[in-house]
Amino acid sequence: MAKAPRNGPYICGIDAALDVVSGKWKGLILWELATHGVRRFAELRRALPGVSEKMLTQHLREMEEDGLVHREVYAEVPPRVEYSLTEHGRTLDQALRPLGAWGTARIRREGSPVVAGAEPSDG
């Protein structure tokens, strides 16, 4: 069954923005690519504890369709695929930074636990 395209109608800009970043992993994929530049699939999977291969693949495809992620396939054996943010993806990352700062402040204020080895950051 085909999924409905994410193209409105929208109530407001927040509605349109959340449509593109909805899902538990999209924000984290965006953060990982913004932080590290280029990542292979396995590197993304290791960096996001708990994400399934299916969900990571689905989110990367949606983000590529939305023009946020660039997928580069190298004709090698075995094939190598690398993901990076597009300029459009970088603008979304910049737009989300204030939300990340708010979340970091909340983690500190509430004393919320973080994933082992992770340091709360505004990104």
Low-pLDDT runs of 5+ residues are: none
Helices, by number, come to 5
Q: Secondary-structure element sequence?
A: HHEHHEEH
Distance between the termini: 35 Å
CA gyration radius, whole angstroms? 15 Å
Give the mean pLDDT.
Answer: 88
**Taking strands numbered 1, 2, ... along the chain, how are they ordered across the largest sheet?**
1-3-2
The total of beta strands comes to: 3
Largest sheet: 3 strands, antiparallel
Categorize the overall geometry: globular
Give the helix proportion (percent range). Answer: 40-55%
What is the beta-strand fraction? 5-15%
Q: Structural class per helix/strand content?
A: alpha+beta
Brief overview:
With 123 residues, this protein is α+β, with helices and mostly antiparallel strands.
Architecture blueprint of SSEs:
Blueprint: H1 13-21, H2 26-36, E1 38-40, H3 41-47, H4 53-65, E2 69-74, E3 80-85, H5 87-110
Antiparallel strand pairs: 1-3, 2-3
Plain-language structure description:
The chain is of the alpha+beta class. It has five helices and three strands. It has a three-stranded antiparallel β-sheet with strand order 1-3-2. The chain is globular.
